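Example for tutorial group B:
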């Protein structure tokens, strides 16, 4: 990659509330570093600050799939070439210690040295909507499975009169039966089990 003499490269170490930025020149010399709010007005300040050091060739961004996602979209919309940089140089971190300034500088150097060249995913449009729906559904399925496994474990250890009646049932029938259980006996053990086996978390959704 041939970088014009007047161009600069930025690096951004992203966090939840703030982003730390650094700028280097074509020779790898650090020109400046500064912290900005992780919000729209902060992104504008960051870009203006980098432009103040010269025309921007590219900006490396850490965590483009999480804390850096919004900044990446902002930069792309502004016509800036954003580069995904996942891990700052570990050797430099061991030598100089952890610091946001160092991480931002190493992100910029990763772009300058072409050790990071990936274009971040857009994280927008119909593809992102589908991905979000898939992640949400997977989480719901996992929670339902965990809830049923808990119910099954409770049922296996239930008093024999109840366990023998439930153990051979299918999953849906077992859930429906447990939802109808009421503490109608004076046996404290059976009463306690009936309370625990009401299965409200799994059984609320009757579509499965």
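The residue assignment follows.
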């Amino acid at each position: 990659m041939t970088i014009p003499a007047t161009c600069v490269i930025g690096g951004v170490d992203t966090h939840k509330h703030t982003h730390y930025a650094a700028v280097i020149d074509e020779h790898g010399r650090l020109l400046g570093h500064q912290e900005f709010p992780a919000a729209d007005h902060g992104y504008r300040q960051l870009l203006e600050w980098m432009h103040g050091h010269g025309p921007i060739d590219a900006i490396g961004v850490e965590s483009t799939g999480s804390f850096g996602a919004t900044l990446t979209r902002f930069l792309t919309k502004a016509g800036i070439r954003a580069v995904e940089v996942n891990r700052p140089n570990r050797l430099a971190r061991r030598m100089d210690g952890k610091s946001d300034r160092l991480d931002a500088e190493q992100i910029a150097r990763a772009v300058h040295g072409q050790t990071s060249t990936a274009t971040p995913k857009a994280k927008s449009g119909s593809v992102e909507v589908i991905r979000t729906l898939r992640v949400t559904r997977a989480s719901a399925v996992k929670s339902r499975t965990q809830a049923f496994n808990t119910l099954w474990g409770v049922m296996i250890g239930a008093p024999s009169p109840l366990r023998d009646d439930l153990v051979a049932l299918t999953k849906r029938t077992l859930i429906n039966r447990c939802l109808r259980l009421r503490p109608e006996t004076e046996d404290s053990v059976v009463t306690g089990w009936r309370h625990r086996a009401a299965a409200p978390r799994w059984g609320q959704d009757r579509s499965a």
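Residues 125-156 form the longest helix (32 residues). Compare this with the pattern of hydrophobic and polar residues in the output above.
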